[in-house]
Input
Amino acid sequence: MISTPVIRVCAIFGRFTDPRVAESLESLLPHLSRRGIKVLASEPVGAVAGAAAVEVVSEEQLAARAELVIAIGGDGTLLYAARLVRQRQVPLLGISRGRLGFLTDVMPQDVTRCIDAALDGGCEIDRRPLLHTSLTPAGAAAPVEGLALNDIVVQKLATGSMMDFETRINGRYVNTHAGDGVVIASATGSTAYALSCGGPIVEPGLDVVVIAPVCPHTLSDRPIVVSARSSIEIRLLERQDSRGQAVCDGFVLGDLAPGGTIRVQLSSETVSLLHPPGYDYFRSLRAKLRWGRGEDHRPR
Output
């Protein structure tokens, strides 16, 4: 357990027009007001209790002033918030109001208790590493760079046609692939897109990266796990009308034509997630994926 500094300014993120998010705000905003916390948002929060006290600011101001970020929704909401504040190491607390999220682990009924724990230094701080990527289009001198907490995806742009690409790890040739693309996921992102591609669930503390082909043209093209210290290179090969796109945590980094490359390696930057008291990763897996039988698989 690492204590958090005194928090006076909090930022909230969410799709405020969603009734589930509004329901959480109804209890959250009055409670923050009673605790004397200044609340910021990048857009109006709607007609909910305590809305009048929320200061609407630009995303740049929000990122500069926030001392705690509360993301209400699914993992996509938290990833968006993390993208804004990651350079300042602002801790993030996720309230689950999405369909299936592994980063937003506070249940709606526990909001008040977990907010108090976050404000009083009672949450566990979990520093998750980011992946750094550089996209170099064919013939370009300078790459475009990006960071991702979950994953970096190289995907085809046009439907109905496959991509041909090759992978290299630390400069060594690994394979030539045909398919819809590839997911390069951190341990954190192993339960996101990579999981739907047949990749393994990786405990977040492990220092590894998952490389999972998307809809490969051959059944022998399977996901692999490599050291997070590896340098991974994806190169798009010549194929008629072949064009790709690189996406970092759902945000488009840029397009890729044959001859272009993507390089991925571990970044020195991290994102700080807050977990509520009693957090158990494996219990979260049981609850989200409905493992087990009896009482022990239910959320607690």
